[in-house]
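Give me structure tokens for this 863-residue protein.
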Amino acid sequence: MATLLFLLQLLTFSQQALRASSPRMQPPPLVVTCLGAHGRGSQGRSSEGWLSCPANGTLKLRYQPAPGARVAAESSGRQPPSPPHCLWYLNSVWVKNSSLWSGQVTLQTGLSPGSALWPVASHLVTVQCSSASCAAPECLYRNLSLEMSAAKWATQKSAHAYRDRTRSTACLFHCSAFPLDPGKHRGFVAKVNSALSGLTPALPRVSASTEPALLHQEAACKLNSVTIQKPPLHTSVIHQKKGTTFYLRARVLVDCSLRVSIKPKWIFYAVKDMKTNPDWDRPLDISSLHGVHTVQLTVPSWTLDYGMYQVYFTASVYVLGTKRSFSKTDRIFLEIERTNLVASIAGGVFRTVSFFDNWTLDGSVSYDPDSAERLKGITFTWYCTKKLSDYESMRIGAGNKCHPAQRDLRWLTPSGAVQVVAPESLPGNAVYHFRLVIQKDRRKSYADQSVSVQSGFSPLLDVACLENCGSTVIPTERFTLSGKCLNCRTSSQPVYHWSLWLENSTEISFDWSSRTSTGRSGAYLSIHALTFTSTADQSYILLLKVTTWGGRSSLYRYAFKVNSPPRAGKCSISPHRGTAFLTKFVVQCSGFSDSNLPLTYKVIVASDVSKTAKINSVEDNTFGTILYFGYQPRMPPSLLPVGVPSWRYTLTLYVQVCDSLGAFTQLSLHVRAQNPVKSRPLAAVFHDLLASVSGSSAPMTAYLQTGDYFNAGYLAYLAASVLNYIEAAPTLQISKAQLRESLAKTALNISVESTMEINQVVASLFQVTEQPEEVNVRSQEIAITKLTEVTGVLKTQRNESHWSEQTEIQTSGILRCLSNILRAALLRRRNVNVGAVTQVFSIMENFRNCNSHLGLQNGRDQG
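Here you go.
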């Protein structure tokens, strides 16, 4: 059987050196015996020189303290040291632990039975022991290392030759402080020689002539330094990130003229901080790392967890062909820190998308470098603004929302790694700045992406005139236009913007809030009457710009010219005072001129309706009955209704002088018309009223027979106004309620085909129903019937776009009539005219529909 010869050179203290340096110890410290195949020790011992073991791949050793190797304290009767903790290394690799001062160990050398042996090869066995019961130098085993070099030699296969070659050996043991530093005890090494008899020529012989030279060369070999490379700063801590692969490098400087073998080794310990000693029994298992036994160690990402580590690097040097070895160790602290999260949005920092496409904001490319599961534990929050500077304060500025539904800087659905944006979700032709913020534990990171949404389709526009639509605009009437996007859908969400320009392309500064009832941001535009009176005969352009949700815009130009009203003259009334329903008054005008002839004259008796039924879309409400309309500047002598008692019976008359295109100049006249009852008997006044409206010879009968509905309406208004100032008396021929019913029937017979006729009917009914206690059920029914007819005509005109401000003025009178009828129907609580109440609300509903034109600013009818 092949055999393995171990050359054990005992590096020990000489007797003299030991006594001089530490009288408390007596060498030799340890006896090592190599066991045979049957568990029996070899004939030679470590102190004698050569030991021989079978070369079957297993090395069995017995160890115990040598006789006489005792601590001086032991002889004085003290307790022996407590059991140690020993670590055994074979060729610098840990293989076994032991906890006794004596015993057996079995080491695997890697040699199998029958393997060929070759010269100049060796194994290094090292044992390190520590005990808690004593401290060096009192305890020999406080820090003890045992190094054995075993050289493999070629041998004869006979048992006789094997026995002859076991008698010549040299063993050395060597003590050092942990970590190993053989250089500290270089002066205490002594060599023990044995006779080299009986060895074959394969064994080297040391002659007297060559041995001094060899010893001199061995002594010249030294390990100058072992250093772990550190940062240039004066620190012993290397900082690395958990998610980063890094390298630890060491430098070993050996000065030796002989051939050497260098065995590097890295060892890691986890520690709480730099002041805490590691648990020496629990080094980290780094055997899987590349370079554990080289000067460069590769530490892949995610290998070490966060925290502090003590890292040791030991270099052991063996002088080949000799029994000389030495080692040094360096230490550094390694701190594994958290790596910053990496936030990223697929597509880069800027991208362009189509308005009609489905697109995504993909933040799943973000990751945590410290985790193999890149997205695990990461929370995502999305933000959006039209202005990037909003992220400085993390507050969204006015007008910077990406979407109208945004409540703050956060996106509509702020969480999740991926955001899906549907087609047409964001307005086109705009840039949106998205920010993704990711967070995990205490770490945060963000990424920005600006998204340019392309434009959608261009809107197709049309503008139609609704009011004041002649060849020229009449400045004294309201001017109304309707803009419309012909190809817009509901999702297009068109935005309208009106502007006023001169023909020379100069924009006019215009007060849109006070001069219009719609403003400039709706589909409809309604400009108040009298807005252009000071700029007559001037040409303008109304420019409508419509921008869709898709970000595309279109323009529509509506050109118009303003007609100038007649140049103002003078008007007067005579007499300046008189009695209502008795005195004949004459209105006469002169000095009016215009290029658009002929001129017409209209005289309106003002009422107080404008104070009780206000129409916001009407700039100047001149509702009242019409006293005169014709071409003559001099009005025929006419009776007037009673003036306002609180104004000393003053009555206001509006005189409107119109040209042939409809533009008019308006003046106001004031006259006093006393209550006739103040100067005449009540019965006489009532008789005259009754005679004027009833009977075959009554003027009212003639008006109705001849179709003079204009004067019929005025006479009904006049009679009702005087009746309102007559108190009920038993001497009256009929009751006042009966007379009101008769006047209501008159209104029922008046045509409502024209705006002027509608005006006369509404004005007369307004006066007839002014005293609720005198309006009987029949009068209520008659008034409701006529107002229903009037509302139907107005609705038809509205649908046919024949609406005008003059027509709208009539609505204030209708509201006053309905209010009076409702008061009369509810006057008697025990006998409420439920039918009248129901019909009043029905008329008001129809009235609201036909007056939807008043809500132009809402921009209805757009689609």
